[in-house]
Amino acid sequence: MEKKEKKILPCDDNCPVKASLGLLAGKWTMMIIFQIGNDVMRYGELKRAIPSISEKMLIQELNMLVENKLVNKKAYPEIPPRVEYRLTELGLKTIPIIDKLVEFGKENLIKLS
Amino acid sequence: MEKKEKKILPCDDNCPVKASLGLLAGKWTMMIIFQIGNDVMRYGELKRAIPSISEKMLIQELNMLVENKLVNKKAYPEIPPRVEYRLTELGLKTIPIIDKLVEFGKENLIKLS
DNA sequence: AATAATTCTAACTTTTTGGTAAGTACCTGA
DNA sequence: TCAGGTACTTACCAAAAAGTTAGAATTATT
């Protein structure tokens, strides 16, 4: 009769949850990824799609996403300027996460009033 | 020849991503859910499983999770105290999210050195 | 000449979040 | 009688995140 042993994988620096959240945890990060989705989105379109975000947070997050290689940025040398954002291959791989988030929210949290 | 119309669903108060993040967005929230998983975990076990969390944050998050009905708490009237946490039905429904988070982290972020 | 459109940038402040350290309660065993 | 184990609680402080406001660049339009 041996003591029941519990297999715990401690959440240290190799914790995949921690690693993913390191990229995605910002207040607006996943909402921006959700909005870009499989499309191309201009800066202004994103702003309208997420009405409550401030301009500062929007570009700050976009820059961070570009730096982390989740989002690709293409600026056209036009006046007025046109800048397009789309998900990179890596960014596209986060979509399943967002999908589950959407599913959970729709089925359990959103009031259908 | 009509202008290409873009169907954007603005992220307002009905945004499912926003709603889900409202419950799950804390720095430690998903890691705690990840650690509880389908098991029962005592307070001390969680502490050991997430070595870098402070006691304050751990109970604070656990209380919040209980309040939001994602986690169930059972305290035994023993000395020394024993308190068990497990996911509620609602909490279990967040596991697919965590799973995708784990998958993304493992496949793209964790260095296998 | 002034205005509008678009994509930012920068300085400053406020709010939120997280960390530290200490303490509480209760019984057991040395 | 005194440390040890367990699950917290509280008060205080620091750091991180986010919000506000203003402005800059460039060209077309009025």
From TrEMBL, chains A, B:
Q: Which domain of life is it from?
A: Bacteria
Q: Which UniProt keywords apply?
A: DNA-binding, Transcription, Transcription regulation
Where is the HTH hxlR-type domain positioned along the sequence? 15-113
PROSITE patterns for this protein: HTH_HXLR
- Identify the Gene3D superfamilies for this entry: Winged helix-like DNA-binding domain superfamily/Winged helix DNA-binding domain
| PANTHER family from the UniProt entry | TRANSCRIPTIONAL REGULATOR, TRANSCRIPTIONAL REGULATOR, MARR FAMILY
Name the chain's protein: Transcriptional regulator, HxlR family
